[in-house]
Write a structure and sequence with these properties.
Length: 577
Amino acid sequence: IVGYRITPTADGTDLPAVDLESTATSAYVSDLPDGAEITFRVAAITTAGTGAASAPSTPVFLPWGGPSQVVDGVYQGFLGRSPTGAERARALDALADPGRLGDLVAALRADEPGYGSDAATVVDPVTRLYFAYFLRAPDAGGLDFWLRRKRDGQRLAWISASFAASSEFRNRYGSLSDEQFVQLVYENVLRRQPDAGGLAFWIRQLEQRRRSRGEVMTAFSESSEYRRVQATRVDVAVVWAVLARRGISNTDLVRWVDDLDEGRADLHDLVIAALGEGVGRDRWFCLPEAPTTAADQERLLNHRDDRWRIGDNARSVALPDGRVVWLFADTLYGKVNPDGSLPSTGWGYTHGSALIQDGRCIEPFYSATTDRPTSLIPDVSSTEFFWPQSGWVDRSGTVLRVIAGRRVGSPNTGGADGGTVVAEFSLPDLRFLRVTPVQRPPRGEGLSWGVALHDGDWVYVYADNGPDPEASWPFNHHAARFPDDATSFDGSGWEYWTGSGWSSRVADLRPMSFPAPKLGFTNVIRTDTGYALVTKPYLGNPPSVFAWKGPSPAGPWTEIGTVADLSSVPDNRTYAV
């Protein structure tokens, strides 16, 4: 072998090949078309000629779309503005030469004459607050949000106070006294225990209302000591958020900080790695444009490959940044036979997953991926797991809460009902935080809340109870609600539907008025004229999906009609609809 030939393909069309020497371990391919789905094939070059090409690589989507979008993103990320014509031309020249990328970023970060960088006054102070409060690098969406606020004139102390009031901070540390807060500031920011005099001084500042907690944290995070200690960490975090378009993990952060401080890497290496991470992220599947019709949306959701095959119990949650999370319970991944049956090996399943829709693109999401995907809500053990049901975003916009059924026993039979929990994920990075049990009202065996509706300041939850689903007698359908800023689910602050109104007494819980007791609720939504719910039979008989309407989240419900007739779907596939 004397070399290798790499042939890129954009949306099925071959692009000019790149030839490499036999000692090459990587390649830089430029001039890829905007918005295309890219694959690569590799062929060995020998003295006898060029051999057969490999199978195409896993498709990747260029999130920047092309060099022009990279330049716009870099200027918006580092400077908060678009480039001038001259700046755009200079930056495009730098992108064409990988050796100059680091110089460009250094100029944007170092406030060289003519750039107008606000790194020292805006970008770096906000980034330091992330490390001080949350002990992590900022995620790309969050950093962009708070930088916009700072550039719009918000004081750093106001942003700091918002961090102190955030769900992520409160969930991590709970409700802190003034002394506990000051103690935490010393430990998180200065990495040491407070001296007696300093502790007393800052406590007095808070008790006498001379400074707010946001101002105290800001004073520490902007101290010369903290700025010096965090300098390299801030550089890495900002470059990664802007160029990779996501937050850097703590593991990668530590590695890059060590390499930069020890001279094993420089800014150029960091820039190339971050840009490569952003450009090379696998977007799984993208449409040419964002879906605007039901057929387009169906095409997006119907994409299948080994990473995600099928899931049941689909419900969606709109996130503040415009993405949509599609929640699923039991999920199949891996190989399937052409006829849809499962082979003897090469496949697996989890007890929960999500599809993340971001405009025209969609990709699977699990709690972790090592040698195989794992459940969206991590399993406690092989005999204790969770089925995601519905979700909502809390009032602060920083936490996704997912109500889920807890199952106990053999997963082969679905386990036994173990109650209901609420799982929490931080936003926008969808990092799993915790599981909190939900109280179960003592009215009816097997009553577990599942379907959820976030409407105004309330979250409405729904539950069915009654005998076995195969029995002929009716089920009861119940509703309850709690404030959307609730962080515990022990029943405090809850209200229960009485049949005619809401009561704080669980003993007053009564079924809703619903004329089809053998149908189970699958979703409840707010409409322009009231509320609608979607139902289906518990065991797919009759094989149809129905819609109902009501004037309130608790009904009363009247039938609209059949949404989908599933009689043509094979019996062994109706469960996953």
